Amino acid sequence: MSEKAEDSGKLEIVTPQGHEEDDKPKKMRMAKKNACDSCGKCCGMGGPVLQKEDMGLLMSGTLSQDSLYAVREGELVFVPGEQEPKEFFIEVIKVKEKNEGGECFFYEGSGTCRIYENRPAQCRDYQCWAPSECLTGIDSTRILRKDIFGGVPFLMDAIARHNEKCSYEKLGVSLARAAGGDEEGMEDVIDMLQYDNSLRELLKEKLGITPDAADLVLGRPLIKTINAFGFYVVQEGETFTIMPIETERKETP
Ligand code: SF4
Ligand code: SF4
To answer: Are residue 102 and residue 175 in the same domain, yes or no?
Structure first.
């Protein structure tokens, strides 16, 4: 949500309630938005990407580690209103959504943000009436996992090994091979799923990092993010079965 006002506005449809004098329902009309009225529409379209100036919110605990996740380079992510997932070409840290591509973790509905006074920079700066102005420069201003965990060599090492063994580039290639009937491709995907799963268990066992907080350290589990690649996984203990998703929008059956 932004408090900035701009001269150039965005047209939006307003649906007035009630009836005209002749008893007909009031007609829709177009209104120009040029300042944030805290409607909450943007909060229903996912959590913000964190910027360096948000580090204080992490330090103070306003943004707890289990309210955040890392989107790794090459990850496919569903965004509201789009049928096809979008590829993230760079790593970012985001506030979690309540479900895939859904409301921000801190959104309580009716335009209410649970951390409004301390909301992240992207929420303060976002202007829905001029979205292109809000998307510039994110490459140099975003927070990276090394900004958060740089002082913990064990975690940085785990992140590096995970990126190497379970990169989304490798996952995409192996899935394509598996889909073409290549057994080695399928074995590679299963190896990645097992590695991703066991590393999360190790972080919990050694450092007490909960599965929710592990989403920030390692990104979300491959067993979930694989859905955006058109597959779903059934896990029974250490056994993983991979199936293609047949539905129109690539959601887990
Ligand atoms: S969509 Fe977001 S930025 Fe636009 S008016 Fe609503 S709360 Fe403000
Ligand atoms: S942190 Fe608050 S203002 Fe920002 S998207 Fe979430 S609910 Fe909206």
So the answer is: no
Same domain, yes or no: 74 and 181: no
Are residues 3 and 127 part of one domain?
Answer: yes
Looking at the structure, do residues 3 and 104 belong to the same domain, yes or no? Answer: yes
> Where in the sequence is the domain holding 177, given as residue range(s)?
151-253
Please measure the distance between the N-terminal and C-terminal CA atoms of the chain and give it in whole angstroms. 34
Ligand 1, from 126, 132, 135: best to mutate by most atoms within 8 Å of Cβ? Answer: 126
pLDDT tens by residue, 189-222: 999 999 999 999 999 999 999 999 999 999 999 9
Question: What is the secondary structure of 45-71 as a DSSP string?
Answer: G-PPBPBGGGHHHHHHTSS-GGGEEEE
- What residue's CA is closest to ligand 1, atom 8? 36
Instruction: Give this prediction's pTM.
Output: 0.84
Atom of ligand 2 nearest to the CA of 112: 7
Does ligand 1 have an atom closer than 6 angstroms to the CB of 126? Answer: yes
